[in-house]
Amino acid sequence: MAERNNGDTTAGFFSLIGALVVGAAVGAVLGLLFAPKSGKELREDLKRKSAEQAEEFKARAEGLKSKAGDIVEELKAKAETVAESIVERVREDIEAQTASNAPPSEGQ
Asked: Does this model's pTM top 0.90?
């Protein structure tokens, strides 16, 4: 079974979110600029839309921050498990080496 590469998946996810945000912003601005409205109405619409986009961006950023925190915690746990495994293997190797180098006891 193939393992997923979390680095590639995370980078792709962030690229997708960035593209969606930029696309939404460009689409909103173009829609407003080509709408038949007065300058005052257009400025009000731009202000409202930019505030909506800012709120949406903040919400998505919080979600991404939370997901990134979860990934960091998961990686810390995995690193700790690997480190403990390495320490245990080194101890076993040291004990085996010490036992093989011990002088023979007097009864032998």
From this structure: no
CA distance 27 to 54: 15
DSSP per position, the chain: -PPP-HHHHHHHHHHHHHHHHHHHHHHHHHHHHTS---HHHHHHHHHHHHHHHHHHHHHHHHHHHHHHHHHHHHHHHHHHHHHHHHHHHHHHHHHHHHHHHSPPPTT-
Q: How far apart are the first and last CA of the chain?
A: 53
Range 64-85 average pLDDT: 92
